[in-house]
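Table S2 (text version). Query chain:
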Amino acid sequence: MPDFLQFILAIFWYTVLILVPGGAFAVLLHFLLSLPMQRRDRGLFFLDIIETALNRGQALENAILSAAETRDRMIGLGFYLLAAHIENGARFGEALERAPGFLHPQVNAILRAGEKMGDIKKVLPACREVLRVPPDSVRTTMHYMVTILLLFGVVGSFMIWFVATFVIPRFRDIAAGADVKIWPISEFVFRYASVLIAFEIFILLALVTLAIVYIGGPGFVRFLRFHGLPFIDWITWHVPWKRKKLQRTFSAMLGVLLDGSVPEAEALRLAGDCTANEISRKRVVRIIAALQQGTKLDDAVRVFDDSGEFHWRLKNATHAKGGFLNALKGWHAALEAKAFQQEETTAHATMCGLVILNGAVVALFATALFGVLVAIDYGGLSL
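Corresponding structure-token output:
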């Protein structure tokens, strides 16, 4: 075959075997990583539609139907499902309840609470706080984690399995045939190779689960919830930055509802529903029970914040001018800042830990294999 044709054939196979799969993987990765931001953008766009309609004095149902007539695909299928419910005669709140997958669960609950209160415009800032975009450093680290997970994590786990299954037995036979004593580290790896593989696969599966939750978002998590056993909500409550965001949502909505002259018990119940978390709701039930026994509101809310700061803030808010929400803004900002700090720290620590862990496992296997060769060369010399 002429050299020119060999060159063309090499280019063809390089394109088919490397460039096309690599390009397809890059497109898929970009699509997956963009899903969380797309959901936020759609939610913020929907809030803009609501705010514009309220400023014009237009009915929300009519504004949604008008936006649906544009047939814009960027709005998402969930929006058109919501519009279809409204077109069939459902009111705004009813349509939101029938289309729970369109908006973030907390935003959905906050908007329905605003409708019950009679002033949706007051709750829009709380909705935007829920949809606030995390810092670039957090998003970048999460994207790196997902990329490493989908590419290097899978490849690394496969290579470790391949070495343990096909390479290590050969090295063990070579060492036995040479009648040499291998290094203790080599003996350790040879003996516990299956345990190391199981550990690596366990870490990989755990990270894959986290990546699926991150990409799938609240809509995916909703399918994992069991009202009789709120395991996912329990995990969310015990993640430090998630808990602070739940406390911020509850506090903001409680302030809005109290400023709207909603009775305390009803305001607490609606604010608890706005968190879309069963653990939060159970704590709110305890707060309402304490109120019925004569406990003051600022003392009863200690159940929702173990640090006691919410109690102090709410106690001062009862004497401050400008309403509850205005008095609690400082605490909301502090909660948001602490949540982002904890999330960023955890993301970076996890990223570094993954790199170090994979490097340590690879170094362990490499040292064990080279240890056999060195032991043979030096006639059984061991460390």
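Notes on Table S2: The chain has two domains: 3-102, 104-383. Residues 3-102 form one domain.
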